[in-house]
Design brief:
TIM Barrel; alpha/beta; porphobilinogen synthase activity; 11 helices; heme biosynthesis
Length: about 325
């Protein structure tokens, strides 16, 4: 540790000018660190607002390319797709996840045709497709691990064949990364990457997201038997280690801001691409405070994202992505 004493050492010298502050900045934030989550819905017409997430919408396939145009133009490297599956297509087994014409697959083909250089990330879990709102199949009120993994394998292959570049399993079933990797490779999809939700916590911050997908009202019970206990930190390292050993190319910590200590530990322990998700509840709180004038919008967006980078995140999934990209390009 470099030390010094006042007045010989004046740390404010390097803060004097904008150019000096840029030159000595320890952490950088760029458009390359941004991933934009998007909610895709059935039907046509104007995008529909998500009531609990100010400024966020569900967009139909007929408007999707137009919706994504700015993100591609601004150089955002990837978007993450989440389907607001119609209620009449939700079943106990989540079979719509395997439909090659489901919302994610249609969106992937459409976007690859329009923006071939834009990365597409596909959520792999059953909660958007089940009538009970859980990430796997229920057996006697319990989410059955191995049966769920068998379905997730097929869901991952279905998405990759439609054009998804990065499979992102968010289900938290044990062993699913290795099974998905094997299934992808068996189909010749050796270049499809896996971004594992390796440390996904049973958090209070997911409510607006579930409302956006229409899975909140249907959820029976909670997800504490498969998502992580917010009290645990060492367990996150075990989860990450297992997923990397099974073939994950990148890992994710979710939620983001309440778990920056986990981001830091994962980054320093494994030195692999580590992502964080600034989830719907975080976004809703910040956006609401910004709209009330309690937080300066531009500074608040960039400061929170810089916090993720400072903690060691390679990138951030954030609903502020397009707005942040414009600010960074300014």
């Amino acid at each position: 540790m470099i030390t010094g004493s006042f007045p010989t050492t004046r740390l404010r010298r390097n803060r004097l000018d904008p150019w000096t502050r840029r030159m000595v900045a320890e952490t950088t934030l760029s458009v390359d660190n941004l991933i934009w989550p998007i909610f895709v819905r059935a039907g046509e017409g104007e995008p529909t607002p998500v009531a609990t997430m100010p400024g966020v919408v569900r967009v139909g396939l007929d408007r999707l390319a137009r919706h994504v145009e700015d993100a591609a133009r601004l150089g955002i490297p990837a978007i993450a797709l989440f389907p607001a599956t119609p209620a009449d297509l939700k079943t106990a087994e989540g079979t719509e996840a395997l439909n090659p014409e489901n919302l994610i697959c249609q969106a992937a083909r459409l976007l690859k045709a329009e923006f071939p250089d834009l990365g597409l990330i596909g959520d792999v879990a059953l909660d958007p497709y089940t009538d009970h709102g859980h990430d796997g199949v229920l057996r006697n009120g319990y989410v059955a691990n191995d049966e769920s993994v068998e379905i997730l394998e097929r869901q991952a292959v279905n998405q990759a064949q439609a054009g998804i570049d990065i499979i992102a399993p968010s289900d938290m079933m044990d062993g699913r990364i290795g099974s998905i990797r094997t299934a992808l490779d068996a189909e010749g999809l050796i270049h499809t990457r896996i971004m594992s939700y390796a440390a996904k916590y049973a958090s209070a911050f997911y409510g607006p997201f579930r409302e956006a997908l229409g899975s909140n009202a249907a959820l029976k019970g909670d997800k504490k038997t498969y998502q992580m206990n917010p009290a645990n930190s060492d367990e996150a390292l075990r989860e990450v280690a297992m997923d990397l050993d099974e073939g994950a190319d990148m890992v994710m910590v979710k939620p983001g801001m309440p778990y920056l200590d986990i981001v830091r530990r994962v980054h320093e322990t494994f030195h692999v691409p580590t992502f964080a998700y600034q989830v719907s509840g975080e976004y809703a709180m910040l956006a609401s405070a910004m709209n009330l004038g309690l937080i300066d919008r531009e500074r608040g967006i960039l400061e929170t994202l810089m916090g993720f980078r400072r903690a060691g995140a390679s990138g951030v999934l954030t609903y502020f992505a397009v707005e942040a990209a414009r600010l960074l390009r300014a």
